[in-house]
Amino acid sequence: MKILIATDGSNEATAAVESANRFLNAVNRDVDLLSVAPKLRRKEPHRNGYEKRALREMTLSFDQARAIIGPKCAEIHEFKEFGSAAGIIVNRAEDYDLTVIGAKGRGTAGEVGLGPVASRVAEHALGPVLIARAMKSEPGNFRVLAAVDGSTASLHAIETLGELFDLTSAEVCLMHVVETPWVELAPEEEWVTYSEEDKENSESGTWEQELVREGETILEQARDALRPHRVSTVTRSEQGNPANEILSEAERGQYDLIVLGATGVRDLKHQMLGSVSSKIAWNAPCSVLIVREPE
Q1: Phi first, then psi: what are they for 174, rounded to 5°?
Q2: Of 43, 201, 209, 231, which sits most exposed with the smallest number of CB within 10 A?
Q3: Contact 16, 65 (CB under 8 A)
Q4: Does 259 have pLDDT greater than 90?
Q5: Which CATH number do you get for residue 275?
Q6: The total number of structural domains that make up the chain
Q7: Residue 175 pLDDT exceeds 70
């Protein structure tokens, strides 16, 4: 498998390399390290001195990454470029099985959210993207929360997890969230005042029960997709807002990785994450694997 790891030598980038090194399979892993520095205008004073300093910093960031990856990689290649970091990473991402990037880069303030480069890569990259953050689990195991909704993107994300990640010592929870019906079918009555029996017998109640049964089928499909990889899984079904429920479970369960399938508008000009994937990528307390719906 071909892995692209973008690094700028920052603490966040170093944590991303460490997490990716623990997550990914060591078998047939080829890694390309990429570091991008802003490009100065031609007439910018001291341009030569800037480029020499930037190249030295890139070399240091590669040395740090190599020391972390160690012997767990078949080959490591290095690429130094000047220009738009987000643009260069996005353009390269389609040629790789996985692109790894830290949630924030050098000079980006704040403890939550995504930096501008990670945000653009997550939104526009066509290949799978791992937004890697520092892990909570001790070495030797990690916890995975895989959100499934029955979409093609969701199933593709589960397949990518099984193919690229070393799950031999992982705890995997497959989670499905049923969005609670919000349409009030009786205009003159409040849904919240219905008794449980009224809800079950109403059209919305019947629909909600059907969604729950559908969720059970979706969870079983996800389990089937992971069975060839001999992964032990548990399942969890919740009702409510998908993004909120997934983020709450990730925080409560101290997970190291959230796995998501991303759907959204895709045309020749742009690609956009779905609202659920975008919210989770921004607010997750852990690493997030985003896998787009295959074309």
Answers
A1: -95, 125
A2: 43
A3: no
A4: yes
A5: 3.40.50.620
A6: 2
A7: yes
